[in-house]
Design goal:
9-stranded mixed beta sheet; Rossmann fold; alpha/beta; 28% strand; 9 strands
Length: 261
């Protein structure tokens, strides 16, 4: 079965900034989806912040194997209940790819447990992205490095937990460096953060960026669901693997919950 990828786009800059709409007439989410569709193993759909439930209904998330997230101006507009819903699906096994300024999204901060703050400069600098983990599935088919002629600078320190793997490191024309490709695992879900993608630059028209995104979707897909990791469950005495006898006092609230079952 093809991997079912959903691209979540904030879709604010495209409506308010001519430089962005000129660059991405179908929306950034539309262009990202276009890049993914070059892989016949990926079926792609898009949803936006403005859709009911931000497009991330229970049904939509149940039908999503890998979710890609691009946001910037509207992080605070995302409802907490939707963030919790997405986090639950990641814990259960859905892959998540967070792009560029999505580092400050509620979902990324929730899953990282950190602020994800960094240094930045918007000056249209050249970015040289080095592959530091050759042989990784995300770097399949890539050269030793690739360059984006105009990008926003992100600089260290990057306030995130130590990653499982550092895939890319960027150097910028002004001299800064940044860990621009990081992998994590939360519950059963694979997570990849990929730095490039400022809205006023043509980053998502770059062929190598497209290859990274397609590789990342294939890597993030697990093909498994573990609903038990999304909630805590009581294991009654009669279902214990070895016979045991209940001992000791219980909290009154626990006693009432047990007797109500």
């Amino acid at each position: 079965m093809p991997i079912r990828a959903t691209v979540w786009g904030e879709n604010i800059h495209e409506q308010e900034e001519k430089a962005v709409s000129d660059n991405y007439p179908e929306g950034m989410h539309g262009q990202i989806a276009k890049l993914l569709r070059e892989d016949s193993n990926i079926t792609t759909s898009t949803v936006t912040l403005q859709d009911p439930e931000h497009g991330l209904t229970e049904k939509k998330l149940a039908e999503t194997d890998v979710l890609l997230w691009w946001g910037h101006a509207g992080h605070k507009l995302v409802a907490d209940e939707i963030v919790d819903r997405v986090a639950k699906r990641v814990w259960e096994g859905m892959g998540l790819i967070v792009l560029h300024s999505g580092h400050e999204s509620k979902i990324f901060q929730k899953l990282m447990g950190e602020s994800a703050r960094l240094n930045w400069r918007e000056a249209g600098e050249r970015e040289r992205i080095w592959v530091v983990t050759p042989g990784h599935p995300i770097t399949k088919g890539l050269p030793a490095y690739f360059e984006l002629e105009t990008e926003e600078m992100y600089g260290e320190p990057f306030a995130v937990p130590e990653p499982l793997e550092t895939i890319f490191i960027s150097w910028f024309q002004g001299g800064e460096v940044f860990r621009s490709g990081l992998t994590y695992r939360r519950g059963a879900g694979n997570i990849f953060y990929f730095r490039p993608g400022h809205e006023t630059y043509p980053t998502y028209h770059d062929k190598t960026v497209g290859q990274v995104l397609r590789n990342a979707v294939n890597w993030a897909y697990s093909g498994e669901k573990h609903p038990q990791l999304g909630k805590s469950q009581n294991t009654p005495i009669e279902k214990s693997l070895e016979p045991i006898t209940e001992r000791g006092p219980k909290l009154a609230s626990h006693q009432a919950a047990t007797s109500a079952k």
